[in-house]
Amino acid sequence: MSIKQNLLNIKSSLPENVTLVAVSKTKPISDLMEAYDAGQSIFGENKIQEMAEKWEQMPKDIQWHMIGHVQTNKVKFMAQFVSLIHGVDSLKLLEEINKQAQKNNRIIDCLLQIHIAEEETKFGLNEEELNEILSSVAFKEMKNIRIVGLMGMATFTDNQNQIKKEFIHLKSIFNYLVTHPKTQNLEPKTLSMGMSGDYQLAIKCGSTMVRIGSSIFGGRI
Ligand SMILES: *Cc1c(COP(=O)(O)O)cnc(C)c1O
């Protein structure tokens, strides 16, 4: 099936409150343009240089989401244009995003990444680290970032019960965040969970943003 047809099929299956991020990492601009022409305007990339190159070449009404792990020294290459950073997992990174956003005279929306998987290798904060960030003076003073929610990745497994357990765990942390006293830089509304293999389950568990790559663009090498 074509990229356009894949995209339209997925879009029509999503509830109205769920946002689709088309994960286009490793794919050529012609593939992204096919999705764009079919109405998709949010794209997710996991490498800053690749995202910046695509941003330069593609229509300017596209919203670019950074979904990969971000190194502090690379933030400056996307601060001008990135619309949401999904994988924020330290106060240090948040400070750098705040600094680069200020230089560009803008506010950058971020999601805090929570570690919910069994694998040690996946990035993310635990609940204690999340609380440390939220209660820190440094965070409260950041005027050029806005925490708009959480992101998480489930364990890479076929065990649906395990994935479900992890999604429910993330949703419960999100519920906690929603009840946390709001500040000008904390406005939780987005829960980014679910990829090609597990997005339907993620939506049942409360996801409001799914990141889908291979089911739209085909497999990656
Ligand atoms: C690659 C990637 C996805 C998309 O994965 P698919 O299985 O191709 O849908 C989603 N989220 C993150 C963080 C990714 O790196």
Summarize the structure in words.
By secondary structure, the chain is an alpha/beta fold. It has a single domain, classed as Alanine racemase (TIM Barrel, Alpha-Beta Barrel). The protein contains 9 helices and 8 strands. Strands 7-6-5-4-3-2-1-8 form an 8-stranded parallel sheet. β2, α3 and β3 form a beta-alpha-beta unit. The protein is globular. The two termini are 18 Å apart. Pyridoxal-5'-phosphate is lined by residues 23, 25, 46, 67-68, 153, 195-197, 211-215. Pyridoxal-5'-phosphate binds at residues 23, 25, 46, 67-68, 153, 195-197, 211-215.
Give the helices and strands, then pairings.
Layout: H1 3-13, E1 19-23, H2 29-37, E2 42-45, H3 48-57, E3 63-66, E4 84-88, H4 91-103, E5 108-114, H5 127-135, H6 137-140, E6 145-152, H7 160-179, E7 186-192, H8 199-204, E8 209-212, H9 214-217
Parallel strand pairs: 1-2, 1-8, 2-3, 3-4, 4-5, 5-6, 6-7
Pyridoxal-5'-phosphate binds at residues 23, 25, 46, 67-68, 153, 195-197, 211-215.
| Unreliably modeled segments | none
Strand content: 15-25%
User: What is the total domain count?
Assistant: 1
Question: What is the radius of gyration computed over CA atoms, rounded to a whole number of angstroms?
Answer: 17 Å
Bound ions, cofactors and other small molecules, one mention each: pyridoxal-5'-phosphate
**Shape field:** globular
CATH architecture: Alpha-Beta Barrel
Quantity of strands, as a count: 8
Brief overview, please?
By secondary structure, the protein is of the alpha/beta class. It has a single domain (3-212), classed as Alpha-Beta Barrel (TIM Barrel), CATH 3.20.20.10. 39% of the residues lie in helices and 20% in strands.
